[in-house]
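Researcher: Sequence recovery benchmark, item below. Answer with residues only.
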């Protein structure tokens, strides 16, 4: 196995996917966005199984990773369209929180360079309630940060898909003959 073989590249891409997915998972937890939390969780599991399949020469796991990657690309395109308000979608809808909470993206109030002003209220003087604070200005608006997360995931997933297709197409029947 060479230094830059398809297997090594896919292992590297899977590791980068895990790191970026874990980072995204943390910020989705901070924003109580339940749909992305569940999808990210499944993504982490599928990437780990795909990584196992590449390392252990298990073609079936790599095929499962391929199928999941197609769904993952679709999810990231959907989230991008949602935050860009394309196709009748709205970033102000409760789709990502599954209607369970009134929270939004963590980046909405805590993005880079965001200045917020708390509204005076007797009941909430010592607590930070996202509904009682107003973001005055941000260096980069939250929807663009979320879209950048999607773009990073797409930029890592698409080469991973190509490498996984190559690995599956070049795998010999001898590798799977044990399971037949």
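Model:
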């Amino acid at each position: 196995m060479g230094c830059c073989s398809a297997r090594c590249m896919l292992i590297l891409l899977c590791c980068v996917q895990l790191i970026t997915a874990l980072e995204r998972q943390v910020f989705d937890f901070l924003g109580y966005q339940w749909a992305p939390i569940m999808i990210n969780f499944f993504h982490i599991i599928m990437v780990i199984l795909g990584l196992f399949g590449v390392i252990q020469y298990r073609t079936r796991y790599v095929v499962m990773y391929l199928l999941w990657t197609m769904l993952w690309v679709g999810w990231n395109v959907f989230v991008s369209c949602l935050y860009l308000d394309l196709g009748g979608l709205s970033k102000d809808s409760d789709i990502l929180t599954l209607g369970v909470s009134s929270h939004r993206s963590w980046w909405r109030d805590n993005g880079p360079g965001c200045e917020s002003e708390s509204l005076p209220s007797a009941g909430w003087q010592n607590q930070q309630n996202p509904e009682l604070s107003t973001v005055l200005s941000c260096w980069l608006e939250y929807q663009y940060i979320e879209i950048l997360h999607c773009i990073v995931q797409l930029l890592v997933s698409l080469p991973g898909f190509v490498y996984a297709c190559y690995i599956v197409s070049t795998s010999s029947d001898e590798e799977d003959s044990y399971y037949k």
